Amino acid sequence: MNTLERRIVLYFALIFLYLPAIVLVVYSFNDSRLMLTWQGFTLKWYVQLFTSPETGAALKNTLIVSFSATAVSVVLGALLGIGMHLYQFPGKRMVEALFYLPIIIPDIIMAIALLAFYVLIHLTLGYLSIILAHIAFQISFIAFVVKSRMQDFPRSIIEAARDLGATPFQALYRVILPLARPGVIAGALIAFTLSVDDFLITYFTAGVGTSTLPLRIYALVKRGVTPDINALSTLILLATLALLYAGLKLLHKPGEKHRQNNSTAK
């Protein structure tokens, strides 16, 4: 396959991936309620969203769930990622595989497993069950990002801090956490994005009367795809892209690897 053919394949792949999202965004400004007819540009669907009490309540619930789950997951996931990088112990590979399992298995399997577990322990379905479910998969993503970030730095930095008299807590607070901070923030942003976007696990673990933005969109779609659904989906899409971009920028800050290599050489 020559260069021209590779470019053609790449362009077709990009069109296939992003054309539906572009159509979604364009038709969120359509003045007609019908998807197949364009009647002019309007912002009324966005105005309608911000004045809808149901959508406002769903947004509030989504932010509460996502912030709560992310706050807990950041602490647990960061400690897990740092620990997996620094320490060696019997069965470490098995433990890593178990913690990365939520990243690999299909969401439907995890959703059913969580629902069965909640039924077993008699936990009432509601916002608490959603938060716990989101924590279950967020921890793995944050741990993976933090561990990947820590691999850019030699362990000799931490050993040097201990040799200079730093206690384990001082080494963690003054050396390890500053090194891991970009990875922790990036992992938190990615985990928050996944929590906001999650539908399947939320749907299985939500109780009666529970409403989040993905559940709100699902309820609206039952009556047909309309511009107000497109508008809500567009806002979620843009917020997701912004958070992911910020997370990736933090994870791959320019010049850090170069500075680290220089310090190692010295």
Q: What key phrases describe this protein's structure?
A:
12 helices; 266 residues; 0% strand; MetI-like fold; mainly alpha; globular; disordered C terminus
Residues in helix, %: over 70%
Rg estimate, integer Å: 22 Å
The CATH homology group name: MetI-like
CATH class descriptor: Mainly Alpha
CATH architecture field: Orthogonal Bundle
The major sheet is characterized as: none
> Helix and strand succession?
HHHHHHHHHHHH
- Give the mean pLDDT: 83
Low-confidence segments: 262-266
- Broad structural category: mainly alpha
Summarize the structure.
The protein has 266 residues and is mainly alpha-helical. It is built from 12 helices and no strands.
Description:
Helix 1 (3-27) packs across helix 11 (227-251), helix 4 crosses helix 6 (127-150) and helix 6 (127-150) crosses helix 8 (168-197). The protein has a single domain (56-265), classed as MetI-like (MetI-like fold). Mean pLDDT is 83; it is low at 262-266. Helices cover 77% and strands 0% of the residues. The protein has 12 helices and no strands. It is an all-alpha fold and 266 residues long.
SSE inventory with pairings:
Elements: H1 3-27, H2 44-50, H3 53-86, H4 92-104, H5 107-120, H6 127-150, H7 156-163, H8 168-197, H9 200-205, H10 213-221, H11 227-251, H12 256-265
